[in-house]
Specification:
heterodimer, A: alpha+beta, seven-stranded mixed β-sheet, five-stranded mixed β-sheet, 17 helices, 24% helix, B: alpha+beta, 6 helices, 5 strands, 16% strand, binds FE2/S2 (inorganic) cluster
Chain lengths: 782, 154
Amino acid sequence: MSDYKYIGKPVVRIDGKEKVSGAAIFTDDIDFGANLLHAHIICSTEAHALIKSIDTSEALKVKDVVNIFTGKDFPFKFGLYMKDRYVLAQEKVRFVGEQVVAVVARTPQAARKAAKLVKIEYEPLPAVFNQLDAMKDDAVLLHPDLDKYPHVPWFFPQEKTNIAHWRKTRKGDMEKAFAEADIVLEDTYYVPRYAHCALETHVAIAKYDYSGRLTVWSSSQSPHTQRNLFAEALSSLGLTHKDVRVIAPHVGGGFGGKAGVTMEIIPAAIATKLPGYAVKLRWSREQEFMNTYQRLGLVAKIKMGAKKDGTITAIDHKIYWDAGAYVEYGANVVNAVGLSAIGPYRIPNVSIDSICIYTNLPPGGPYRGFGYSEFIFGLESHVNRIANKLNIDPVDFRRINAIKEGDTTAYGAEMNPSGLHQAIDEVAKAIEWDKNRESKDPKKAIGKGFAIFWKAPAMPPNASSSAFLKFNEDGSINLLISGMDIGQGYQTVMAQIAAEVLGVPPSKIRVENPDTDRNPYEWQTVASHVTWGCGNAVKKAAIDARDQIFALIERVYHLSQDSLYLEDEAVKCHTKKDFYLPLKDFVINGIMTEDGTFKGGPINARGVFMPEFSSTKGDPETSQGGHPNVHYTVGAGALILEIDKETGKMRVLKAAEAIDAGKAINPDLVKGQITGGLLQGLATVLYEDMRFDKGGKMLNPNFSDYKIPTSMDVPDEIIPIIIEVPQPDGPYGARGIGEHTMLPAAPMIANALEDALGIRIKSMPITAEKVALTLLDKEKEK
Amino acid sequence: MKEITFILNNEKRSVQVEPSETLLEVLRDKMGLKSPKCGCDRGDCGACVVLLNGKSVRSCLVLAIETAGMEIMTLEGISAKNLNALQEAFIAFNSFQCGYCAPGIIITVTELLTKNPKPDLEEIKEVLSGNLCRCTGYKPIFDAILDVTGKEVK
Ligand code: FES
Ligand code: FES
């Protein structure tokens, strides 16, 4: 299959020049002139309270203040999968940092000054910050009207509780399976919340013009989803979808944080009250930490049984999610994990409870990995421990149980083609798993850790993609699609796919950031699905263009379509070797025939992809039936860790990660995902940590106190490994890999620590301090 | 408001500034130069780095009024003629993903290479430790710098 010209090649990014020259325009870079207004948001200081009164009279007197808005101005709910949130808080606040009042002024300074003069009176309510407490019978209810909230049919909220959704998966006979097991291990694992920390904070500008048109410029992973939510939420104004336009410039990092709709609804709603102006809202870094989606925290109780020979007989996985004050998106994270928390294993007897619980903390939502990193920490720690107890090498144990094509998943569907076993072998080889290492420094210890992973895109069954492709006079191409290049290199990969079909180099294909007015529908850029889903749509669009070209050539030159092919920006013919017609000669102006008339015309093509086999119609009590996940992407990782026994300080000496990309359309970009994702994952386990005080206020909402990796934290050596077991329904066999690269990081560290020092740490993050203290405790026990 | 004059990207420019305005605000909002980015507004991220009299500074921490009479260089100034070898290397190595960190990083590395045209990896890491990049894991950035300075890329 190596006869591809552009697929599988390390093509340079088509947006590279823009980004290294400073030309790339991000949302905050657009100028709106003197009619721009600035919104400043007053955030809740209470975790749970009734809003008794809001007094804006003094603030309104400040020079340059245009207006001040409160929840009363926008009395409607919105949300992606469940309508449980508001533009500005209504009657109640549910977390510290929640948006309560919007001051709009001609300058940011005036807005800030006026904000200080707004008086808000709260009546505090009992608050709950821990999901296990929130489950108790006497817990305060965050959403007493939960049963009235509209939601997607695959959510199961529990009336008069804080449980927004409960995904149950059941298979086999648990009792029998545990009775038959030679070993049963039960334990609990803890994962706190994390922040995406995209370098660009959320920003959106909205303008409602005098003709009744709403345009929103937004740093977003989801332009079409945003348009849909804006149009629905603001429909009372008579806005229809065609009146709402979302323009998405370059995005300075997303990682899930810019999916769906969060703060963007605020300027959109305000703009409708201030026609003619552009209204801008930009989160400060502090607001970015405190009021965007956060990665949900979890408490996971795992009970697993295995036979002496290493086969896993059963897993009972109960996962309690700290989902925060609003779960319109986060509940789907919980759902996804509830279907997949057996991990990439063949396990005949399964019970999973994945429970989405409201707490008075910021809303949980999508974060690269969509819940999988979180449960894989516990699961891959647990698997390692069972292997050790059975005296089976942890890698061999995984070889025994790792899922294969055709095995059944927890919900009864068949596993797709997968290179998991190959990934295990190649990682073990790259890291020299069998080699014994010892530190020359007596103060230091060295350990090795292994983990495997899988993840499926979590999407509605009808998440579709589409593409328009049009030729220009010189044979160059504009490809119009609506996925977002949030850094992963999507635009380049889409150009490569079109290039391969049409014989036009990617450098002659322009892919711009989308505008929902002219670019066709794409669900969202999440779930690592755009390479697969939108890639299919682009391929179909390119084939449509090719078909149009061949039909025209047949009509004019009477050459059979079967004999034609495209190469080097021209049409060529297998049966007539001297036939050669450059694309630029006809793709706009058509072909002149003998009588001077022209045939053909501009080549404009389209492609649509819908995963027509996907369905969420599983049984609510067991999740059996249906086909909720389109496929899984799998992989394995291992690392060598050096630990200072006195300080607990850890250094990753070497890490290897293999991922089954199906087909790496651009291997260089896949490797970029591996290095970037791995470091992001290592940071969550080694030092990142969201701290909240007793009142639910985040204590470290800045980069001095919430440490993300710097150039000094990069592992000494990273070995990226690409496996290619094709996905039959993917473009050229490709499936997505963007999120997966961070999945194995945390358990690899935990497992390496146990290997080196015999300590097992079951809560993240595993900081140097925690390691040092655990070692001290162990000393004391002796 | 006070009028100040400086040399911005090799051109003499004048602008009215408030005493409280940062250089980052003035460059972006008054001079129309958008390559310096705001990632934190408190000196933590390095996205706003520009050259001030040849030295890299975080423009979110510098008051514009203090830059009167000084020479300021942003990524626009560096790109004005042709992309330089460093920029070409960043393209060839697919060094950046979202690219939000790129202007700050390119300015920081430009200063480094002026001082030391052949830095080793440790030095590169150290100099870049004040420029956060959330996307790339830094490795493809190191690789491009090593390559352009004639070092072997592992
Ligand atoms: S914006 Fe200046 S250092 Fe972050
Ligand atoms: S490329 Fe996104 S922050 Fe560096």
